[in-house]
Specification:
The chain is of the alpha+beta class. It has helices at 2-11, 15-20, 66-74, 84-92, 117-129, 135-152, 156-168, 182-187, 190-200, 216-226, 277-288, 304-312, 342-358, 362-378, 383-396, 403-411, 415-425, 445-450; strands spanning 26-29, 35-40, 45-52, 96-101, 106-113, 206-212, 251-255, 262-270, 291-292, 317-324, 329-337, 432-437. Helix 11 crosses helix 17 and helix 14 (362-378) packs antiparallel against helix 16. The longest helix is centred in the first third of the chain and has 18 residues, at 135-152.
Length: 457
């Protein structure tokens, strides 16, 4: 019993101690423009990844889907390690390799034992520089992606958010889906994929990030040794300029009365990544809360909208979101409900928005700030989340923002700031709306627009 107590005390740390004991993120920029960043810890494992400023926003209507296609191809072998040889080498390390593509970034990362970090860097550099792009593999992956697209069509939440982007950013690159269209996937060629890599996979647009039991000096040495191929020799390559994606207050409705539940998302234009208003909006979202029928708590939840949802059986779930991009964003909420509850749920959700603008209280804000602090510290669980945090921060902000700074920004928020910032982005603004499923009861756009303000006497 005494030993258990001692172990418990040794493992306990206050919130302030946790923030102070986080290792500093070290960043080194190589001659070719590649940024190498790491956070050292005493973990027996490490996660190393390459974050690239490339995604569906950098595509045009004819090449939409190229980034997602390349993510698939990059994991299928290189010129040095064709096909199964690459997979076997990863498996021989007992490592886990993964990747993802979003609208503004592409990432490939690997989790392995810390002692294998130099080999992991070599494999990642080979993956990025020397993707084989064999015709047979391209055709095989084309079939895989087309099947994925069919499966994605059944995920109504993802479909709703794709529609939301399509209507909010009409005619711009942010309206593209990450996966691309079926027609594009069928016709993209090896030349298209190679051209995409040549244009976007450049050293100044990349971050090599690592977290775990590694040495920053050894990471830099490994980067200098392996990230020196053709894509990394031309430091002066110009970065494709992103066109401003203008937000449009409009709607897309895909009515299907054969579906059991309605999916609805409403959003206004939010700020870009670097805007300090994001912290306040995240606090506002925490005040609004989230709800799912599987949650406990019932009528005793802190979220007023959750309490209404329980009392009046308004929805199956709802969740606010704040999706940021380089120069714009989507701030809104998404809910899933029965066909006969659509109007009531929309009325209550918009009413909660108006309350955020006019009557948010200090006690609600304090509770929301504690929620955000908890979510922030949860990012420290495991090397993969820390590594992703490092890579994304350097692409979004140009530096890793320490948690102490985030905590200071959160602490500075008060109820007046929440009311002012929410009024700035929400009050009397034209929203974008996407609705899928049995949505006959959803009021017309003008009625929804009229609920974006309250008449004050």
């Amino acid at each position: 019993a005494a030993l258990l107590t001692l172990t418990r005390k040794r493992g306990a740390a206050t919130y302030a101690q946790t923030l102070q004991n986080i290792p500093e993120t070290q960043v080194t920029t190589l001659e070719n423009g590649l940024r190498v960043a790491s956070e050292e810890s005493n973990q027996p494992t490490c996660t190393v990844g390459v974050w690239i400023e490339a995604g569906s926003r950098y595509e045009d209507p004819k090449t939409n889907g190229a980034a997602f296609f390349m993510e698939h191809m990059a994991l299928k072998g290189t010129k040095k390690r064709p096909g199964s040889a690459f997979e076997k080498e990863v498996e021989s390390l007992g490592a886990h390799l993964n990747g993802y593509t979003s609208r503004e970034q592409t990432a490939f990362y690997m989790k392995a034992l810390s002692k294998d970090m130099p080999k992991v860097v070599e494999l990642l550099s080979d993956l990025v520089q020397n993707c084989a792009l064999e015709d047979s593999q391209i055709e095989k992956e084309r079939g895989v992606i087309l099947q994925e697209l069919k499966e994605m069509d059944s995920n109504l939440a993802d479909v709703t958010f794709d529609y939301l982007h399509a209507t909010a950013y009409q005619g711009t690159s942010l309206a593209h889906t990450v996966e691309g269209t079926t027609e594009n996937i069928k016709r993209l060629t090896r030349t298209d994929l190679a051209s995409y890599v040549d244009t976007h996979f450049k050293a100044p647009r990349m971050v090599l990030a690592a977290a775990g039991g590694i040495s920053h000096r050894e990471l830099v040495d490994a980067a200098k040794q392996h990230f020196t191929g053709a894509p990394f020799t031309s430091k002066g390559d110009s970065v494709p300029t992103l066109k401003r994606c203008r937000f449009t207050g409009s709607e897309i409705r895909a009515r299907d009365d054969g579906l059991p539940l309605a999916h609805i998302a409403l959003a206004v234009e939010g700020p870009g990544w670097a805007d300090p208003d994001n912290v306040v909006l995240n606090v506002a979202n925490a005040v609004m809360g989230r709800y799912d029928r599987t949650f406990g708590g019932g009528k005793n939840q802190s979220s007023k909208l959750a309490v209404l949802s329980v009392e009046h059986n308004l929805c199956h779930s709802f969740e606010p979101f704040n999706t940021s991009y380089s120069d714009t964003g989507l701030f809104g909420f998404h809910f899933v409900c029965d066909p006969l509850s659509v109007d009531d749920m929309m009325f209550c959700a918009q009413g909660e928005w108006m309350r955020l603008c006019t009557s948010t209280t200090e006690s609600e804000v304090e509770r929301a700030k504690n929620y955000l602090r908890n979510a922030m510290v949860a990012q420290l669980d495991g090397t993969t989340r820390v590594c992703e945090n490092i890579g994304s921060h350097l692409l979004h902000y140009g530096r890793r923002i320490p948690l102490e700074e985030w905590d200071a920004r959160i602490s500075a928020v008060d109820a007046r700031m929440v009311r002012d910032v929410c009024s700035k982005y929400i009050y009397d603004k034209c929203p974008a709306l996407a609705a899928v499923g049995p949505i006959e009861q959803l009021l017309d756009y003008n009625r929804i627009r009229s609920a974006m303000y309250w008449v004050r006497l």
